[in-house]
Automatic annotation (TrEMBL), chain A:
A GO biological-process term: tRNA wobble position uridine thiolation
Gene3D superfamilies for this protein: 3.30.1420.10, DsrC-like protein, C-terminal domain (1.10.10.370)
Active-site residue numbers: 103
Protein name, per record: TusE/DsrC/DsvC family sulfur relay protein
Native species: Sulfuriroseicoccus oceanibius
GO MF: sulfur carrier activity
UniProtKB/TrEMBL annotation, chain B:
InterPro entries tied to this protein: DsrE2-like, DsrEFH-like
Species of provenance: Sulfuriroseicoccus oceanibius
Listed name of the protein: DsrE/DsrF/DrsH-like family protein
Alphabetized PANTHER family for the sequence: CONSERVED WITHIN P. AEROPHILUM (PTHR34655), PEROXIREDOXIN FAMILY PROTEIN (PTHR34655:SF2)
Length: 104, 164
């Protein structure tokens, strides 16, 4: 697991750049990871990230698309436009969570 | 062998049973979730997956399915003749739909909507549409267009083509 420095903090990540440990994560770090993915975080992004973080804390897993739609109230189209090129994967990475493990 | 990532897929769904339609939908949705461009092409009985009157009534074929088991997959297979008993197909479909719901795999109608919203193209096969005497009105609103095989290949330029 390669180490990486984000905003002066050294964190360990998996081979795809997902944080191994969520504890050093904070909102500034999220903004930096997002920049690396070509995304500038707005309130709309934070609505998604906050939901994913809360759901992860409760369920221990990154929610899938349907859960984000039905429970999180975030439409599929919006997710794809906020996080182009792999919405849940990118959102999980920015939220400092592990790579999503579900097929849907 | 190069490790060039897959950029575009065309997935052909040719069977009209539940286990014939879902794999294609899961693969198409999964592709979009990985940022891979995707197109779904429905042909022959697979077309029932996008016919608004039938898409939410798709069943598992229990006749001639020697792998049929109760959900834990480790039990004895169901004797194949039992698959022909009245109500078997509906029962097996009900059991599997329940398991899929637990995994947050949506019913077909909702899944098609999700996949379409994800930016995946959804197409129907011209020959089958003519053979089954169908019109545009028979399709769910997410079906983009009826394509000939030639148009399908044109649209699939640069794609990996997967036949299910």
């Amino acid at each position: 697991m390669p180490d990486k420095t984000i905003n002066g903090v050294t964190v360990s990540t998996d081979d795809d750049g997902f944080l191994q440990d969520h504890s050093p994560w904070n909102k500034d770090m999220a903004a930096t990871i997002a920049e690396e993915e070509g995304i500038t975080l707005t309130d709309a992004h934070w609505k998604v990230l906050d939901y994913i973080l809360a759901d992860f804390a409760e369920k221990g897993a990154v929610p899938g698309m349907r859960r984000l739609n039905k429970v999180g109230g975030i439409p599929t189209k919006e997710l794809y436009s906020l996080f182009p090129g792999g919405p849940i994967k990118k959102a999980a990475k920015i939220a400092g969570l592990p790579k999503p493990a579900s097929c849907v | 062998m190069s490790d060039e990532p897959i950029k575009k897929v065309s997935i052909i769904v040719s069977k009209g049973s539940l286990d014939g339609i879902y794999p294609g939908l899961i693969m198409a949705n999964g592709a979009r979730m990985e940022g891979i461009e995707a197109n779904l092409f429905f042909t022959f009985f697979g077309l029932y997956g996008v016919l608004k009157k039938y898409m939410n009534d798709i069943k598992i074929a229990t006749v001639g399915n020697p792998a049929m088991r109760v959900p834990d997959a480790k039990g004895m297979p169901l004797p194949t003749w039992m698959g022909a008993l009245p109500g078997m197909s509906a029962f097996a479909t009900h059991m599997m739909s329940k398991e899929m719901d637990k995994l947050d795999i949506p019913p077909i109608g909702e899944f098609i909507e999700m996949i379409s919203d994800a930016g995946c193209g959804i197409y129907a096969c011209r020959a089958t549409v003519d053979m089954f005497h169908l019109t545009e009105d028979d399709f769910c609103p997410q079906m983009d267009r009826v394509l000939t095989v030639g148009e399908f290949y044109e649209l699939s330029a640069g794609s990996q083509i997967i036949f299910t």
